[in-house]
Known about the structure:
Layout: H1 2-8, H2 12-19, H3 28-37, E1 47-55, E2 58-63, H4 72-82, E3 95-97, H5 98-112, H6 119-135, H7 159-166, H8 182-188, H9 193-222, H10 232-241, E4 261-264, E5 276-279
Helix pairs in contact: 3-5, 6-7
Amino acid sequence: CDAERKWAQPDEKTEKAKSAFPDMSTAPLQWVEQVTASIPEEYHEILFPIKKVIYWGHPRVIVMQNENGPCPLLALYNVLALRNKQIITPSSTWLISAHELVRSLISFLVEYNPPYDDPDERANQEQALIEAAFFLPSLAKGMDVNVRFDSVRGFEFTHQLQAFELFNVNIVHGWLCDPQDTEVYRALQGLSYNTATEFLISVAEEQSAWDEKQRQKHTQRQQPSDSGEPSSASQEAHTQSEPAPEAESSESTTPPIGTQTSTHTHTDTDTHLPTDTHVP
């Protein structure tokens, strides 16, 4: 949808919107309110159930899915909730909107990352927080990742993953090769999922092009030439089907009795007759 594309794809409009954010170092609460005000209206209509659970003997409040499907936004919140980070307060309806959940996470993010004293470090920190807050709402719709096959923490950098880092939440994956499968292990070392996919597609395209070239060659060999003469394939078949010429009668070359003569006869190789014939 447009809202998902708006938050997931950085373009000129999104870069301009980020530049309009207020200075969070001087007014963090105003910054949070202004950032959350730019969240799409449809996020008010996305509702998630809230549930109380007992985790290691302590009560915790988690958020559940409203329908089947990936939702990294809930995963991020639930990890923080199990760490006993008080982010939301359960309402009487035991429902929370995606808008309120994102707003609560952004507030916690600002509180959890106080400004650095060094001006340069503080500038980098603010930029990272702006990026995380800007892309955080897109986590309600899913998250694209490009895994690497050599580490459980091997991912290509994205602003969505940066949000998890700022919350100090690690993401791992299980797309690893078995080292005992040495052939596949060597082939995928240092590659990402996208790189491996592009390589397989290029190999398939090359194989398809080679097959098509061989098919065209075979078709051309089977078709007659434009001059009306039979093709080389038909000429070859015709030559192979011709009967071998009969050998000359031996009566005309038989010498008188009592003499021996050596006769050399040149014949076509297809007749399989000897080139040297000794006649007694």
